[in-house]
Amino acid sequence: MKKAAIIFFILCNIGAGFSQVARLDGFSTAGSRNQDDLEALFLESVDFPSFKTHLATITRHPHIAGTKANEVVRDYLVRVMKEAGLETTLYPYDVYLPSDPGESLVEIVRPKRSLLNQREDILEADTFSRHPELKKGWNAFSGSGDVTAEIVYANYGTQDDFEKLVSMGIDVEGKIVIARYGKNFRGYKAKFAEQYGAAGLIIYTDPGDSGFAKGLVFPDGPYYNESAIQRGSLLTESFTGDPLTPFEPALPLGSKTETKRLRPEETQLHTIPVTPIPYGEAMKILGQMEGKPVPSGWQGGLPFTYRLEGGPQLHVRLMVDQPIDLVPIYNVVGTLKGSVYPDEWIILGCHYDAWAFGATDPNSGTSMLLTLSEALGKLAREVHRPKRSILIGHWDGEEHGVIGSTEWVEQMREELSANAVAYLNFDAGVSGKNIGGAAAPSLKKVMTEAAKKISYPDSSKSVYEVWAGNKQQPSLGNLGGGSDHIAFYMHTGVPSLSGGAGGPTLYHTNYDDFYFYEKFADPEFQMGGTIAQWAGIMALRLANATFIPYHLSRYAEDLDLHLTNATSRIQEFASGFQGFGRSQKAIAKLREVSTEVESVLSSSLATGEPDAAKIPAINRELLRLEKSFLVEEGMPFGSWYKSLYVSNDPFSGYASWMLPAIQYEISKKRTENLDQLDEQYEAAVNRLIQTIEQIGRIATRD
């Protein structure tokens, strides 16, 4: 009897232990226990030191898209992925871009000639800074030209800034504009400068935004020193990707499937010369300007009063001669084929091309994905293959305009529409120690719940707790522009997220190297493995859940918030506007239906695994959810952008536009199309409702 009692006690405690494993979204009770065991194995499989090895290897040399150095990085990615056990494929493209800055100069011509520096200083502490292959500061897709003209200061070079200049009677026609980085994508600075008649544009990072006004500068601190220069693309087409092949993949010349290419003169590429300089050199121009003082908010961090015009006594010469041609780039995609649903894909990605070494941007993310590949490959070899396929993409040509990932999405459009569960982006994903993220409504819960499972380095807290800080839950943003999620999310309707750890970086400068990373980003090299664990838990839950664990009811919550915000903004210029009544009514129904169907799915999993025939049918419907927002005609500012739910801001490039067709009318301060848009958004929400209702019908079918 005593022995039987002991056995009973042990069994009860084992049962209690099992019951402590909370049932995960999309999993049955037994499935949750199995997943919990698998996740414990996965977390142990992540080799933290491998991140440092990969980062040191990838960032040994500068590797701009289209160069031999970048092909060396490509080959390393292929080797590591294959050794990890992933089926690895190269996707080549011939795209139109400059892989070299060409020739350029910036010179003060009068009152006294002075040739300005366009390259970072060599620093004794940072041996990488003397690398012979480092390039001067440059902006890809600049126009070529040689102009000498007066100077006008345009603050950040936003549309509002140029309109402010006009309102103050400042004419930029035929003059060279100088503007500071920030507030919008640099390409729009060039676009607006050209639109207002400027002859050229000089861009610099002001110390008030990153420099001595923020703290210690490099190499003593993580902020821009007086010679640091932000490089970057200026591409501002009405679509994303290769400028010659909108909507179609830029397949290599001579491919069986011929790609029709635009002629360069048919594009919207800039024609004026544009180049960046460091603030130490910008000071030499700005310090000699003698026009009217700038208005409130335009003063930067340099130690003098900023002025709007240089006047006739100050002339500057700007010359850029930048070659642009068809250049080969290569995406590297590794696949861990699913054991049960191989045609349902979870895709993780980060680009690997960089403006120089790219230690934080992007290759901290690249190295993390290599570490993750090794951990997932080890699990697969131990017979723990995921149920759905996990794909890991290393994209090329992102820095020039999110080109490589876009060409792949355009090439794989039909397969992605049918198969893609989610895209998880990790561009510069381990740039520091501050946790952050943004996601589609359906993926926000997956992202935050996975963070609860990961220990934050040298802390008793989880990543979730550190992320949340003093709040009840973490702050989660909405995806905007500027990285490889764009084509997945905004063109083909694949739910996407972007996450990782960040901090102050020497963004797009020659100093973004391994020395900087080791000294300032993460000296202990613990964050790479931590983010690999977080990314892996997200991927494995999406891959192994019986039902794809989208958060259905979050759509109504987020849509209601975005529509309320849009209504408030419209009422600022149209006080009589009553709101989007039809859409709000549809959202109320969406909230009711999605909550009910979530409960149905949860109940069907609580009693065990559901009927095997229902699982693929329900998941096929779940894959259609985000497609509810796609419209064939696209957005009014660009038909390539298909989603009514989200787009990058076409006037700033980086910001997130929620409900972009409505946001476009707000930007124009127009009301005549709002009734039609109310009907259009109502229809999209109704499509979402119908899909969710169909899921409920399948789940309750006998």
Fill in the CATH topology of the largest domain.
Answer: Aminopeptidase
Helical coverage, percent range:
25-40%
Q: Strand order of the main beta sheet, please?
A: 1-12-14-13-15-17-16
Secondary-structure class: alpha/beta
Rg result: 26 Å
Main sheet: strands, sense, barrel: 7 strands, mixed
Q: Tell me the name of the CATH homologous superfamily of the largest domain.
A: Zn peptidases
- The overall pLDDT average reads 95
The second-level CATH architecture of the largest domain is 3-Layer(aba) Sandwich
According to DSSP, the number of beta strands is 19
Strand content: 15-25%
Uncertain spans, ≥5 residues at pLDDT below 50?
Answer: 1-19
Shape type: globular
Architecture overview:
It is a single chain. This protein is an alpha/beta fold and 702 residues long. The protein folds into three domains: 29-97 and 333-544, Zn peptidases (Aminopeptidase); 103-234 and 270-322, Glucose Oxidase, domain 1 (3-Layer(bba) Sandwich), CATH 3.50.30.30; 552-700, Transcription Elongation Factor S-II, Chain A (Up-down Bundle), CATH 1.20.930.40. It contains 20 helices and 19 strands. It has helices at residues 2-19, 29-45, 48-58, 68-83, 159-167, 186-195, 279-286, 363-381, 403-411, 413-419, 444-451, 463-468, 485-491, 514-521, 527-544, 554-573, 581-606, 614-622, 660-668, 674-700, and strands spanning 87-97, 103-110, 114-115, 139-140, 145-149, 151-153, 176-180, 200-204, 232-233, 274-277, 315-321, 325-336, 341-351, 388-395, 420-425, 434-439, 496-502, 646-648, 656-658. The chain is globular.
